[in-house]
Amino acid sequence: MGNYKKFEELPCWQKTRELCQAVSKLISKAKFQKDSNLKEQIWKAAGSAMDNIAEGFDDGSSREFIRFLGYSQRSCGEVQSQLYRALDCGYINNSELNIVYDLASECRKQIKGFRKYLRNYKKD
């Protein structure tokens, strides 16, 4: 997968790890504790963003990796949607939403760029 030997070296994986850390901080807030369904859902989506990069990397096939990166990218979008649900329920404020939303956007951007790189790399 390019010059990377381990998934931990991938900038997009590192960024999704940051997203997981940010989501963890949000869902540990007292207001979030009363909604275990949303708490679990946003946590799983953030984890899926991170884990699908690792899982796809370990497959060894560029085509499969691109597919798993797509799952990861969509999971970032899922986190963003769930942030609005958390805001609407009063669990987080606009500032908290914006910080984590922007982080998820950066994840999506990096993943999208890496998918494009892999598609072009594969053709060479």
Q: Could you walk me through the main structural features you see in this protein, from its secondary elements to its overall organization?
A:
This protein is an all-alpha fold. The chain is 77% helix and 0% strand. The protein has four helices and no strands. The protein has helices at residues 11-27, 36-57, 62-88, 94-123. Helix 1 (11-27) packs antiparallel against helix 2 and helix 3 (62-88) packs antiparallel against helix 4. The chain is elongated and about 45 Å long. The mean pLDDT is 93.
- Number of helices, counting only DSSP H or I runs of 4 residues or more: 4
Broad shape: elongated
Rg is 15 Å
Give, in order, the helices and strands: HHHH
Span from first to last CA? 13 Å
pLDDT < 50 stretches: none
> How many extended strands?
0
User: Assembly state here?
Assistant: single chain
Main beta sheet strand tally, sense and closure: none
| Class of secondary structure makeup | mainly alpha
Mean pLDDT: 93
Strand content: under 5%
Helix proportion range: over 70%
Essential attributes:
elongated, mainly alpha, about 120 residues
Task: Describe the secondary structure blueprint for this structure.
Blueprint: H1 11-27, H2 36-57, H3 62-88, H4 94-123
What's the short version?
With 124 residues, the protein is mainly α.
